[in-house]
Amino acid sequence: MSRPVSYNVNEKKLVSDISMAEMPAGHQGEGFFATSLNSVIGLARKNSIWPLPFATSCCGIEFMATMAAHYDLARFGSERVGFSPRQCDLLMVMGTIAKKMGPVVKQVYLQMAEPRWVIAVGACASSGGVFDTYSVLQGIDQVVPVDVYVPGCPPRPEAIIDGVMRIQDLVGKESLRRRNSDQYKALLESYGIQ
Ligand code: SF4
User: Fold this and answer.
1) Closest to 94 in 3D by CA, of 125, 73, 72
2) Which of 96, 136, 149, 150 is the best mutation target for the ligand 1 pocket, counting ligand atoms within 8 Å of the beta carbon and taking the most?
3) How far is the C-alpha of 168 from the C-alpha of 181, rounded, in Å?
4) What is the pTM of this model?
5) Model pLDDT for residues 149-169, shown as the tens digit of each residue
6) From atom 6 of ligand 1, which residue's Cα is the shortest distance away?
């Protein structure tokens, strides 16, 4: 006798929970829709961010939960986690970074292609956290520019998702020319990056 099979999926709910990416601002008429190239590229980029998790301690465990089925970072188009910096555009630093590791974080950042973004996840990556000691970097922004800081020790997965959504806002609105601007070059130069 075969066992009855049940699926833990409510089809109706599944369909109603699927949402479409927001349309960028533009002009539409019968049979056409016009918008700026900036908006289209921003829309594509923000919904296909490839994270590189640089996890050194406890905050990395929260990231594992964030990637798993319950919190499901894939909903934001970010399920493609990469460990080759050349194929990723979001560096997520999670955990205590010892001063010895600072140059390694910087090297990974340098190996990423532009445009690239950085999230400091948790108190340690943001400010050294409780480790106000001679051996711990007091925030990764001492070696690379950071776009979003996620507070908490550790931050819950909801907070990490909020950080990714803040990055999505930045990515979606970023001008295609920002990376060529004098301001951006000056920012990199302040970190000794050409
Ligand atoms: S912020 Fe707290 S949980 Fe995260 S790595 Fe530091 S000590 Fe661990």
Assistant:
1) 125
2) 96
3) 21
4) 0.88
5) 999 999 999 999 999 999 999
6) 124
